[in-house]
Design brief:
31% of the residues lie in helices and 32% in strands. It is α+β, with helices and mostly antiparallel strands. It has one domain: Gcn5-related N-acetyltransferase (GNAT) (Aminopeptidase), CATH 3.40.630.
């Protein structure tokens, strides 16, 4: 059985392993994941199977823009195709929407058709293509999902 919960510091090495398996050279270093944990822990979730981390999702909320971001999503190769990415994404979307985000954005490599299908099934739409989002030969598709507009509780 897969369980989704908030990430803890003890999970970071397992998350980093999945990050490297998912993104190879483009993966976040462990120290960056630690910084994300410190900054965005309200939006950092893991999927667990038999007490092992098998996936994660990392998001953030930019309050002044009323905009949430899915910054990274990874599932261990042995657990792909089991809807874990979808479960993690749905958990993050619910957290961001309940935090009064009016939209959530993400970037995805245009060749990552599996991820794009998941995001489209979750209601994301193509917003803009960037041919050098992370630099030369690093294209990304910006995708957005709109929520009902809600003001922040101040």
């Amino acid at each position: 059985m897969i369980t989704i919960r908030k990430a803890t510091l003890a999970d970071l090495e397992s998350i980093h392993e999945i990050e490297v398996l998912s993104f190879n050279q483009g993966s976040y270093p462990l120290f960056v994941l630690r910084q994300f944990y410190d900054i965005s822990n309200d939006y950092f979730y893991i999927a667990e199977h038999q007490r092992n981390v098998v996936g994660y999702v990392l998001g953030n909320l930019t309050k002044h823009l009323n905009q949430g971001w899915m910054l990274s999503l990874g599932v261990h190769p042995d657990y792909r195709g089991k809807n874990i990415g979808k479960l993690l994404s749905e958990t993050l979307l619910e957290a961001l929407e309940s935090s009064f985000s009016s939209e959530i954005c993400l970037t995805v490599h245009p060749d990552n058709s599996t991820a794009i299908r998941i995001y489209e099934a979750l209601g994301f739409e193509n917003s803009k293509f960037h041919d050098a989002y992370y630099g030369v030969n690093e294209p990304r598709l910006l995708m957005k999902k709109k929520f009902m507009s809600k003001p922040f509780n101040t």
